[in-house]
Amino acid sequence: MVDLYYIEDDPNIALAVKEYLEHKNFHVTICATLAKARQHIKDHVPACVLLDWNMPDGRGDDLCQWIRSHWKDLPVIFLTVRGNSTDIVSGFKSGADDYVVKPFELEVLYSRLLAVLRRTGNVADQYLSCDGIRIDQNLHAVFCNSEEVFLSTAEYQLLLYLMQHKGKTVTREKILEQVWDVNGSYVNNNTLTVTMKRLRDKLSQPACLKTIRSVGYRMEDTI
Amino acid sequence: MVDLYYIEDDPNIALAVKEYLEHKNFHVTICATLAKARQHIKDHVPACVLLDWNMPDGRGDDLCQWIRSHWKDLPVIFLTVRGNSTDIVSGFKSGADDYVVKPFELEVLYSRLLAVLRRTGNVADQYLSCDGIRIDQNLHAVFCNSEEVFLSTAEYQLLLYLMQHKGKTVTREKILEQVWDVNGSYVNNNTLTVTMKRLRDKLSQPACLKTIRSVGYRMEDTI
DNA sequence: ACAAAAATGACAAGTTGGTGACAGAATTTT
DNA sequence: AAAATTCTGTCACCAACTTGTCATTTTTGT
Fold first, then answer.
1. Which of A36, A132, A189, B153 has its CA 20 to 30 A from that of B27?
2. Cβ contacts from A onto B, under 8 A
3. According to CATH, where is 3.40.50.2300 located in chain B?
4. Which chain A residue's Cα is nearest to B122?
5. Does domain A127-219 match CATH 1.10.10.10?
């Protein structure tokens, strides 16, 4: 499921768009203020941000610039009534990827959204984080307290799987199946334990990576 | 100088757009038929294609699909009078990156063009740099700490590709595809490794050029 | 205290990328 | 046109890293 944030203060429009896009198999979170949007994005970075210009607590282009400065690859599409050239140009100047003028046809929005997502090549969950550990899937890089850590393929896959299921306990069997057993080959059960140890060593024994005895492991925010 | 092809049969519009964009430091080639466009693209792939829908010898969306099937990363922007939702949706379906309805403001086209180029990484930058390494695409020259370095064609292409994707991990496959395999010819996987070694030697083993084991390479500023 | 589960250290086999050498192709010089 | 030079792809080999496994120790829950 692809995550979208829709920053919009008019609940009617917001809900109509949300409903339409959820039919198209997106997961849409509505943010009614810029402050809430910032909060949400910091918490979890979506695949794309849809952004209204006029918000009760500020201007959309400020948020767009803020997004651009922190997440270069996170696409932003303006959705706004402000349709004259000057507005459009300044929207793009603030770092937008597309600009759609209200009122718009939902299917046009959908087409433009797909085009933007195709172009940015973003996998769902491009940015994942837990405590001080961060993955940027486009960069294929892992950071631990802002220092880049170089993981082997198996370690990277394992960490990715755990972070994609942050907050949930994942069983050893499930992990083995997903990270190793993809095409039916058998691996020793201890392989997981060993790879986990190697991962923990490289991430300096993170507290957010817990062992759930006789079940599996769980990654979760502790701070 | 960034190359654009503008596929348009109306010489008045074509020349107006060409003149405006050349002021903005693009190099615009006008193609009055789809056949000519195909020819030109096969001959030299531009940074972006601007495309009219109705052409004397066929439909723009056919060309767009053809481009998309051969050059996945070459962006296409429709410029057309056909402005209803159905047209726009089918334009995007054929693989467009943006769709601008005539008549349009030239500066809006410019903004959208920049946004598309930024996203595809076919950056308009004539000068690319990373740490002490600089490329001047006009001069076709490379400098390492202000000393000119003479690269062979393959080395230059490789460096250019890496610098155009500065900050991203590019896979070995992607590099081979882009720098060598352009028209489907096979090259040994080790060719990349060897060319990379030669490049590194000439650039005195730059720290900004990292190997990401079992993925590819990444160029990024380290200072 | 006990048994089960997980962590750990060590190791051998397997990958992967870096390296020097070489020969044919392409380009430049004579 | 011939010779010299440079470029390019390939190969064999090496070093570094990765990975799965085992034997052993430590931790954990009861």
1. B153
2. 67
3. 2-120
4. A119
5. yes
Where in chain A do CATH 1.10.10.10 domains reside?
Answer: 127-219
CATH of domain B2-120: 3.40.50.2300
Strands A147-149, A141-144: pairing kind: antiparallel
A101-104: list long-range contacts, CB under 8 Å, 24+ apart: A102/A13, A104/A79
A206 token code pair: 């993170």
Residues 6+ apart with CB under 8 A from A7: A31, A34, A37, A49, A50, A51, A52, A55, A60, A63
Q: Which residues of B touch A139 (CB under 8 A)?
A: 167-169, 218
The closest CB to that of B108, out of A88, A111, A112, belongs to A88
Q: What is the pTM of this model?
A: 0.81
Inter-chain contact B111–A88, Cβ cutoff 8 Å?
Answer: yes
**How would residue B207 be classed by pLDDT, with cut points 50, 70 and 90?**
very high
CA separation for the pair A156, B213 (Å, rounded): 12
Choose the mutation target among B20, B71, B72, B85 for the interface with A, i.e. most A CBs under 10 Å: B85
Quick check: B89 and A112 CB within 8 A?
no
A72-85 per-residue burial string, b: 16 or more CB within 10 A, e: under 16? ebbbbbbbbebeee
* The two three-digit tokens of residue A150, written as one number: 């170089």
| Cα–Cα distance measured from residue B167 to residue B121, given in angstroms and rounded to the nearest whole number | 11
Nearest nt by C1' to B150 Cα: D6
**Residue whose entry in the numeric block shows the structure tokens 């024994």:** A205
Q: What is the per-residue pLDDT across A21-61, written as a single tens digit (0 to 9) for each?
A: 999 989 999 999 999 999 999 989 999 999 999 999 999 99
Residues A81, A100 contacting (CB under 8 angstroms): no
Parts of chain A with a pLDDT under 50? none
Which nucleotide's C1' atom has the smallest distance to the CA of B212?
A: C17
Question: Dihedrals φ, ψ of A104, to 5°?
Answer: -130, 160
On whether the CB atoms of residues B208 and B129 are closer than 8 A, the answer is: no
Query: Which pLDDT does position A108 carry in this prediction?
Result: 97
